[in-house]
Design goal:
Elements (H helix, E strand, L loop, with lengths): L4 H9 L22 H11 L4 E7 L3 H13 L6 E6 L5 H10 L4 E3 L11 E3 L6 H7 L2 E4 L12 H5 L3 E4 L7 H9 L4 E2 L3 H13 L1 H15 L1
Parallel strand pairs: 1-2, 1-5, 2-4, 3-4, 5-6, 6-7
Helix pairs in contact: 2-5, 3-8, 8-9
Length: 219
């Protein structure tokens, strides 16, 4: 079973006698779990502040997140950027980068509260479902590094508006689905991401449509 015709052809070239194109099995997965009490507490602490999540980031992407945070703060001084690294073991490295960038950083693994300004590093395992429900705007990690992207279906199931960078070779067929449904915001570079996110923060209702389309698609 292949997720698209090109992959089916490659399997056939390798000698598979019976290849069929199927839906991507990631669509069949249940939404990521989360703790309702913890979510309610975080929502109370965040209040009405605008929230931007960088999900499953890799080396080099956190520096982009810090630069973007500074840019967004020019128009929205109370914006809170949340970073969930793909590998929490990189937390010390990420914290050093934040300090070098002149930003205060609070870490979830230390029990730190959401910061009044700066960045919140959710350096824990198994909590993406929590932060997808806390943050309506999601920048997908692995799309600004040579990683190929990470699963957009998971934030889509939570109704997030997903911002996708220039790299996405791991999800070509899924991206076609999302484009056709008007369920994803693709950006060519960091400057385009900053412009699109700034617009989304200024007019949340208009940009919520992407998240609603994403939820319908994955449902």
């Amino acid at each position: 079973l292949a997720q698209n015709a090109a992959e089916a052809a490659r399997l056939g070239a390798l000698g598979a006698a019976d290849t069929r194109v199927s839906a991507n099995l990631k669509y069949a997965a249940a939404p990521l779990p989360f703790d309702e009490k913890i979510l309610a507490d975080l929502q109370t602490r965040a209040g009405s502040r605008p929230l931007v999540l960088w999900a499953s980031t890799h080396a080099g992407e956190e520096a982009r997140a810090f630069a973007l945070h500074k840019e967004l703060c020019k128009a929205q001084p109370d914006v809170l950027s949340v970073i969930v690294p793909r590998h929490p073991a990189r937390a010390e490295e990420i914290e050093r980068e934040a300090v070098a960038a002149g930003l205060a950083l609070r870490r979830r693994s230390r029990g730190d509260d959401l910061p009044q300004e700066g960045v919140y590093l959710a350096d824990t395992m198994g909590e993406l479902g929590l932060f997808y429900r806390l943050c309506p705007l999601v920048v997908m990690g692995g799309t600004f590094a040579d990683i190929g992207g990470h699963n957009p279906i998971e934030p889509a199931q939570c109704g997030c508006t997903i911002f996708w960078g220039p790299v996405g070779y791991n999800f070509l067929t899924v991206l076609e689905d999302f484009r056709a449904a008007g369920a994803i915001v693709e950006v060519a570079d960091e400057a385009a991401l900053a412009a699109q996110l700034a617009a989304a923060l200024q007019n949340p209702a208009a940009w919520r449509t992407y998240g609603e389309n994403a939820a319908r698609l994955t449902a």
